Amino acid sequence: MHFRRKPEDDVHRENMTEKEIDSSSFLEEVEAHRLSLRGAKLTAAIAFVTGTGFTLFGYDQGVMSSLLTAKQFEKTFPQVIVDGEHRNHATLQSLLVAIYEIGCLIGALSNLWIGDRLGRRRTIALGGIIMIVGAILQAASFSYAQILVARVITGLGNGLNQTSTVPSYHAECSPAVRRGSLIMIEGSLITFGITVAISGTAVDMYVRVDFPASKPLFTGYLKWLDFAFFWAQSSSVQWRAPVAIQIVFALIMVVAIGYSHLDGKLLLKAGRPAEAMAVISALEDKPTSDVGVRQLYEGIRDAVIAEGGSSLDNEEGNPSKGKVSLKELFTHGKTQNFRRVCLGIAIQCFQQITGINIITYYATLLFERLQISDTKSRIIAACNATEYLLASFIAIFLIDTVGRRKLMFFGSAGQAGTMILLAILGSINNSAARIVSAVMLFVFNSFFAVGWLGMAWLYPAEVVGLRMRGPANALSTASNWTFNFLVVMITGPAFENISWRTYISK
């Protein structure tokens, strides 16, 4: 519901705000909620929590890339072996990878109902706990059906927090002038998680195969890693350990979120002005008497009231006034909710149908398709992930100077051109074409990292107003996981049946 305010009402509200801030009882309450972390340290703490979430997200995406062709993984789950006798296994292999997205979709949609009720921190903690349970079940799996269920549960936790809650939480707690670069850093942490997941197996194989004991001293340090993993080569720990590592990231996130704080906007929306002032003062690292802190508080307060999302705008202090009705997502009017939601959904959709997760989930298999050996494919996949990480840093420095739209156009054009070249080169079956194709997979990741990696998480959080941000981000993230599932599910059967033409479809 929206209402029109009279000019005299604004004056009255402004005067009430000044009296409220200057009252001794209000200042005492603010002091009671004073945060121990302030300024840069508080911003860094929030970034650490959200960064751990994004790293976990990336690790979860990348870990399957190396495991699909691991011998012990194939021994436990023969359904993932694709050969001339089991061509239908391409679908089962893709299902094992893609079923994770179904869990993420369910988790993202769950935020429509529980996101605002639990709040950002509790939702993130709940999602982390669910991911821990899912990871334990995955690592303990002994059958194809069991690991399918476990991956759905893990995805449920990821969809609940990392993708639909963490970006909003960080955007709301970030200074406006630095929000773009901070969210881009989170995008880089996704690639860091992917790099960690893919590189682990690749380094292990590289050490075993390519470094005999007679080589220089540096080899000796690497051989300790070889020694540590040597005993696992005939054990399912070869794949269970990498899957279980995500528990560490989830635990860090769950514990750390308990020491984080809500931002001023959400506290004002919940009708807790003193706590909001304490948080704003801490983020700015200035006293409540500071003119800038007061102006920021009043500006946020007026924005929350204008959106009809606060219990502060009625004398009863009724918190129900701030509850969001889902049908508001499909309204126009001054706030243009439906248009904003559609923009978020479209951005998340476009990010996935570029085909980025063809490489993220199937990197090792793609390089093996180029007739590169199993060992070298893993090493190149790890290098690909590392280069992906380095390319993502470019967007951090360009986002606030070049702007959102231009970077997205740049990324789209580059990815489209790269896919065309991959299709052409794929139809030419010779050594030179295969080498250039491998290079093009690196180039594709680079364009995506600059134009789309972090943008899909930043843009929807920015274009939607505070009142509708939770449910709107749930829908936009659901779009991400829907098309993510589509891309990942069809990739295996597509390459098995139409080979290089798969790139044309992207």
From TrEMBL:
<dbReference type="InterPro" id="IPR005828">
    <property type="entry name" value="MFS_sugar_transport-like"/>
</dbReference>
<feature type="transmembrane region" description="Helical">
    <location>
        <begin position="126"/>
        <end position="147"/>
    </location>
</feature>
<dbReference type="GO" id="GO:0016020">
    <property type="term" value="C:membrane"/>
</dbReference>
<feature type="transmembrane region" description="Helical">
    <location>
        <begin position="243"/>
        <end position="262"/>
    </location>
</feature>
<feature type="transmembrane region" description="Helical">
    <location>
        <begin position="379"/>
        <end position="400"/>
    </location>
</feature>
<feature type="transmembrane region" description="Helical">
    <location>
        <begin position="407"/>
        <end position="429"/>
    </location>
</feature>
<comment type="similarity">
    <text>Belongs to the major facilitator superfamily. Sugar transporter (TC 2.A.1.1) family.</text>
</comment>
<feature type="transmembrane region" description="Helical">
    <location>
        <begin position="42"/>
        <end position="59"/>
    </location>
</feature>
<protein>
    <recommendedName>
        <fullName>Major facilitator superfamily (MFS) profile domain-containing protein</fullName>
    </recommendedName>
</protein>
<feature type="domain" description="Major facilitator superfamily (MFS) profile">
    <location>
        <begin position="46"/>
        <end position="506"/>
    </location>
</feature>
<keyword id="KW-0812">Transmembrane</keyword>
<dbReference type="InterPro" id="IPR003663">
    <property type="entry name" value="Sugar/inositol_transpt"/>
</dbReference>
<dbReference type="InterPro" id="IPR036259">
    <property type="entry name" value="MFS_trans_sf"/>
</dbReference>
<feature type="transmembrane region" description="Helical">
    <location>
        <begin position="95"/>
        <end position="114"/>
    </location>
</feature>
<keyword id="KW-1133">Transmembrane helix</keyword>
<dbReference type="Pfam" id="PF00083">
    <property type="entry name" value="Sugar_tr"/>
</dbReference>
<dbReference type="InterPro" id="IPR050360">
    <property type="entry name" value="MFS_Sugar_Transporters"/>
</dbReference>
<dbReference type="InterPro" id="IPR020846">
    <property type="entry name" value="MFS_dom"/>
</dbReference>
<keyword id="KW-0472">Membrane</keyword>
<keyword id="KW-0813">Transport</keyword>
<dbReference type="GO" id="GO:0005351">
    <property type="term" value="F:carbohydrate:proton symporter activity"/>
</dbReference>
<feature type="transmembrane region" description="Helical">
    <location>
        <begin position="435"/>
        <end position="459"/>
    </location>
</feature>
